Amino acid sequence: MKNLISDVGDKLRQKEYKLTSRRELVLRVLLENKDKHLSAEEVYNLVKSKAPDTGLATVYRTLELFHEFEIIHAIDFGDGRKRYELGAGLGHSHQHHHLICTQCGNIIEVNEDLLEELENRVCQQHEFTITNHQLKIFGLCKNCSAPK
């Protein structure tokens, strides 16, 4: 974790930003919860539990800055709220996909690049350079689709 925090500090300094104590705290919360897809409000509540004087606006600005630097990805799972996860800026270059249960809201990560063949075809046929993609599949998870 220490190396990742140092890498983020270096990345910010390259563009004349600083890794302030509050930004580092937001980053630590994201790293500690890297298996979750936290909303800004959830990040704020976790940060506030460690530093009660932190404002919601500080968390929002930090998340936007981290998103701009590709340290995190912002994803909308259909509920109108952005959720955040670590991005390519922290060495997470493999794109993964999400299965979203429309009943309970459970999110399951699929760690296979299901679109690689399609991307190659699109690039060749349309002379198009793909820089990113997201695949979200909506349905019912195992628990919600089980007979009751």
What does this structure look like?
By secondary structure, the protein is of the alpha+beta class. The protein folds into two domains: 1-93, Arc Repressor Mutant, subunit A (Orthogonal Bundle); 94-148, Ferric-uptake regulator, C-terminal dimerisarion domain (Dna Ligase, domain 1, 2-Layer Sandwich), CATH 3.30.1490.190. The chain is 43% helix and 17% strand. It has helices at residues 2-14, 21-32, 40-50, 56-68, 116-126, 142-145, and strands at 38-39, 72-76, 82-86, 97-101, 107-110, 136-139. The protein has a three-stranded antiparallel beta sheet with strand order 1-3-2. A three-stranded mixed beta sheet has the order 5-4-6, with no helix packed on it. Helix 2 (21-32) crosses helix 3 (40-50) and helix 3 (40-50) packs across helix 4 (56-68). The protein is flat. The termini are far apart.
